[in-house]
Design goal:
The chain has 830 residues and is of the alpha+beta class. It folds into five domains: 158 residues, Single Sheet (S-adenosyl-L-methionine-dependent methyltransferases); 109 residues, Immunoglobulin-like, CATH 2.60.40.10; 119 residues, Sandwich (Jelly Rolls), CATH 2.60.120.1540; 274 residues, Glycosyltransferase (Alpha/alpha barrel); 159 residues, Immunoglobulin-like, CATH 2.60.40.690. The chain contains 15 helices and 42 strands. The strands form nine sheets. A seven-stranded mixed sheet has the order 5-36-37-33-40-41-29, with no helix packed on it. Helix 5 packs antiparallel against helix 6, helix 5 runs parallel beside helix 7 and helix 9 runs parallel beside helix 11. The radius of gyration is 30 Å and the shape is globular.
Length: 830
């Protein structure tokens, strides 16, 4: 492969053309199928390529080689994010007077998986280079059809500029951070340049500046600077981070003779020091009326942050959008969340088709959601046919059943799922079944009922096992009985056991002014269950088996009132099953009428109004008021009014509304909190030993740029915990060290966990995510005890940084949680 520009040096935005020539070992041209990939070399240096040369892969003799491994994932959210011009900003054109500002950054420029050469073995390919200033590597791999000749080659080019700039910043900020940002100007030419640097920003307040390690100067424009050939000159700026969603920075330099310039524009997220507190009130108006809600602010809150958000939804179809969006954008991707990302979308799409509703956006997204999810699940299936919580985790019958349900429903919606994957999962689940008399705990019976339901949906129902479990149904929770009824119905729709189980569900309902719901005698944490999830599953069962059941409308009302902000429920499992149950009800009830007008007022002042009609059935209206506009010393009066539309014979449909007050506590009140989990964090100095190992030293709150720091998390579980997530936020001027990368020094040691009473015990945390702003730990199960977890970070950018408290929770029962203190951490210059 040869680039047309034989010098191999390009500028951003130029087009590079490659001429490809394929020959055999005798130098004769051959026709072949190639894959071409043009990749940033910096990415390739992170780890060795997973596949060796093709000659080794196809022709090397090998013995049986079976390996298992658990990888440590690094989420690389690049600092150089594409700038969204539609977000607006403060003053100017955002280019700081520069001729060109680099905004478009990518790791991969070109990917051609099926490039076929002609009879002469020749082909061409071209790509437009993004704004990265880097070395690009073209990887070419080829194979012939009949004789399986294979080969590969690589070619490198460089993108550069005579004058270039490099920013030195953290990867994120926290409100109130005080940082020293760097701008490096590099002269790649052969003549001395006189340049003028520039720095514009929104989201941060720019303060003093200095050249190199010199004296800090006042605010204002930086004077002209001389940069010799091959020299780098660094300017530092002091900034204070404001209350904003993101910092939008444009840094650059231009030669005074106007021949050369370079600039870079990027965006850094800004996080709050504390997690927002949210209180909500929700309701349903079935007829013309006015509902009054009282909203009181807490005694202490930060008036600069937070808002009251009111949502108006004219139908269930609109009310489901928030939950679907929550699942689609959930930040983690365990096996359960992978399935929950696409499974409710499939049910929603099918319900829309049943009701002849159009949703072009969902129809367009669905193939990608399902396709990506299926691909992840296929690669994560264990050798025994099951799945665990994360890739490499031990197979779990409940999670494996949930995955199989996703595969079955995807296939029903005409997505391709290979039969061997389903067969292996069915075999695993069949082997997990036990005799009902051997079940000691309700969670075992519930899991068996769910497994029988999934197997029945997969066409592998077992009526005899289902009836045997029915005979011992006293072991089942209410949601387990719903699954068992569905399993029996698949095998025999007229079975007497179905009526008995539905009668059990009817008698177990709790009816109140807010609707009907079901409460379990005890939580089933092993199977990720909660009362809201039970109610959703029972709604799905009743909608399928007895759609005219009188409790259904009341249960739907209750489920809708249990939503939290953003239209989701309290966990991914609750949200997924709520959407499944509600779409089942939507499909059989046809709740699609809407003919009324609505108005919302706050303290007597109009906040918004509109008309609900068939054309806007799935549209949600959001109204927002900042907390500093609310009454602080009195109760705020929110009125939601529904009226008949002018000229309408009647007002039809339901109005679903929600009022969500989000506020932040003052910084001084962000202290440690114990709600069933106790968490603390400590930073320790970390000198390297002569052997390359490390051991934590003294407790510190300050480090110098380049120092390695050990983070020590202590977690106390007063009782056994299930599906635990720990989020530990970093100081913004530091970066987590991933010891699995080839670029990491010996000082960066793998994360380590220990248990106080079992210093050489099991590795309970089954998955670790290292991200720009935090380290995230996941454990399927934590027995009662005290745990210490350590990992390494490195100080990178000078400043004084606010540190967000560490947060731990049971993901599917988030009422059990804990957090550490916040704090300040200082990074000083070298």
């Amino acid at each position: 492969t040869t680039p047309v520009n034989e010098a191999g040096v390009y500028e951003p935005g130029q087009t590079v053309e490659y001429q490809v020539k394929v020959t055999d070992h005798n130098g004769e041209p051959v026709q072949a199928e190639l894959s071409l990939a043009l990749i940033d070399k910096a990415v390739l240096t992170l780890a060795p390529e997973p596949v060796g040369q093709l000659i080794e892969a196809f022709w090397h003799a090998r013995a049986l080689d079976v390996r298992t491994a658990s990888g440590l994932t690094l989420a690389l959210e690049r600092i150089n994010r594409a700038l969204d011009e539609k977000k607006g900003g403060g003053g100017g054109d955002g280019a700081a007077g520069l001729d060109s500002v680099r905004r478009n950054f990518a790791d991969t420029v070109l990917w051609l998986p099926e490039l076929v050469t002609d009879a002469n073995g020749e082909a061409t390919a071209e790509a437009t280079l993004p704004d990265n200033l880097t070395t690009w590597v073209l990887l070419a791999k080829g194979i012939t059809g009949d004789d399986t000749l294979v080969g590969e080659a690589r070619s490198e080019i460089v993108t550069s500029k005579p004058l270039l700039v490099r920013p030195v910043t953290p990867r994120f900020f926290v409100i109130g951070d005080e940082a020293q940002l760097g701008l490096i100007m590099q002269n790649n030419g052969e003549e001395t340049l006189t340049v003028t640097p520039s720095f514009e920003a929104t989201g941060v307040e720019i303060g003093d500046w200095r050249l190199g390690d010199g004296v800090w100067q006042g605010t204002g424009e930086v004077s002209e600077i001389t940069v010799e050939p091959g020299e780098e000159v660094k300017i530092e700026y002091q900034v204070v981070v404001a209350d904003a969603a993101a910092a939008r920075l444009t840094m650059g330099a231009a030669s005074t003779d106007e021949r050369y310039s370079d600039g870079i524009a990027f965006e850094l997220p800004i996080y709050h020091l504390s997690t927002p507190e949210t209180v909500a009130t929700v309701g349903v108006l079935d007829e013309s009326s006015t509902r009054l809600e009282g909203i009181a602010l807490p005694r202490a809150f930060d008036p600069s942050q937070g808002a009251l958000t009111v949502t108006i939804e004219p139908s269930l179809a609109a009310g489901l959008r928030g939950g679907l969006s929550y699942l689609e954008h959930f930040p983690y991707e365990c096996v359960e969340q992978t399935v929950s990302r696409f499974l409710p979308n499939i049910f929603t799409y099918r319900a829309y088709q049943t009701l002849a509703l159009e949703n072009p956006a969902l129809a367009q997204r669905l193939p990608d959601l399902v396709g990506v999810g299926l691909q992840r699940l296929i690669t994560q299936q264990n050798m025994d046919g099951g799945w665990g919580w994360w890739a490499g985790s031990e197979s779990d019958p409940f999670l494996s059943g949930y995955v199989l349900l996703g595969l079955v429903e995807a296939r029903r919606s005409d997505f391709a799922v290979e039969q061997w994957i389903v067969d292996n999962a069915v075999n695993y689940l069949n082997q997990s079944l036990v005799a009902p008399q051997d079940m000691a705990e309700p969670w075992q019976a519930n899991r068996q009922a769910f497994t029988l339901y999934v197997l029945a949906e997969a066409g592998q129902g077992d009526l005899s096992r289902a009836v045997a479990l029915f005979e011992r149904r006293e072991k089942l929770d209410l949601y387990g009985r719903a699954f068992l009824a569905l399993a029996i119905h698949q095998a025999d729709a007229q079975a007497d056991q179905i009526d008995t189980l539905l009668s059990d569900l009817t008698s177990g309902a709790v009816v109140s002014a807010t609707g009907a719901h079901w409460e379990e005698a005890q939580p089933d944490l092993v199977n990720m269950n909660s009362d809201s999830r039970s109610t959703a599953i029972i709604v799905a069962a009743l909608a399928r088996l007895q759609p005219d059941h009188p409790l259904l409308p009341q249960a739907v009302r209750w489920l809708m009132t249990m939503r939290e902000q953003q239209g989701a429920w309290s966990s991914t499992q609750e949200t997924a099953w709520a959407i499944i149950g509600l779409t089942d009800w939507l499909a059989v009830s046809g709740e699609l009428e809407a003919a009324y007008a609505w108005q919302v007022s706050l303290n007597g002042q109009p906040l918004g109004d509109g008309v609900a009609e068939p054309a806007s059935l799935d549209e949600t209206t959001n109204l927002a008021v900042d907390v500093n506009e609310l009454l602080a010393e009195a109760v705020n009066r929110l009125a939601v009014e529904r009226d008949s539309t002018v000229g309408a014979a009647d007002d039809a449909g339901r109005l679903y509304y929600g009022a969500y007050l989000t506020y932040f506590k003052p910084v001084e009140q962000v202290t440690a909190l114990d709600r069933g989990i106790i968490v603390s964090r400590e930073y320790l100095s970390l000198p390297a030993t002569s052997e390359g190992g490390t051991e934590g030293g003294a407790s510190i709150t300050e480090a110098a740029v380049g120092d390695f720091i050990q983070v020590k998390l202590t977690l106390i579980a007063p009782h056994d915990l299930h599906y635990v997530m720990v989020e530990d936020y970093l100081p913004a001027g530091t970066e987590a060290v991933d010891s699995s990368l080839a670029t990491t020094s010996l000082v960066g040691q793998p994360p380590q966990v220990s248990r106080a009473d079992q210093p050489f015990g099991a590795w309970y945390f089954t998955h670790t995510d290292l991200r720009d702003e935090k380290a995230v730990l996941f454990a399927d199960y934590l027995p009662q005890g005290v745990y210490e977890y350590t990992y390494t970070i490195r100080a990178s950018t000078p400043g004084q940084y606010r540190v967000i408290p560490t947060h731990a929770e049971q993901m599917y029962f988030p009422e059990v949680f804990g957090r550490s203190d916040g704090g300040l951490f200082t990074v000083v210059g070298e």
